[in-house]
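[Meeting: bench + compute handoff]

Bench side (C.D.) handed over the final construct sequence. Compute side (W.E.) agreed to return the predicted structure before the next meeting so the bench team could plan truncations. Sequence as handed over:
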Amino acid sequence: MISTIGTTTIQATNGGTLSTTTAPNSLVMNPTSMLVEMKSFIPSSYTFETEIEKIKQELLTSNLDCSAKDETNEQYLYEMEDLIDHLPKLPEIQQQKLTIPEFDEIEVKATDSVEIKKFIRKVNYEFPGFSLQP
């Protein structure tokens, strides 16, 4: 015996009726099986990462093909391209060689207290580019 969740009856224009019965687990979607089914439609040579990178590059160079089968999607693509075209351009990223700052030794004065002398010696030793060691 098959238990039913619900029955749907549709009145056809020619006077007939169409009745469907829903099986107990038919409304529950199994994401794993859906992914397996979707994978069979996608060629093995296709990778989403390369496609996404290609789209990003085309958007940045204002060279994206915005044609789509659905007019709404096509309009959306044109609007996205227009929006991205109006964003300010980012400056080129350039790597510069780091320079290590060099510091002059802080002189200890005779009038400095013991704590200040200790602090100055510590700072002189820890500053990059300067060391009391020969």
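W.E. noted at the follow-up: Residues 61 and 85 are 9 Å apart (CA to CA). C.D. will use this when planning the next construct.
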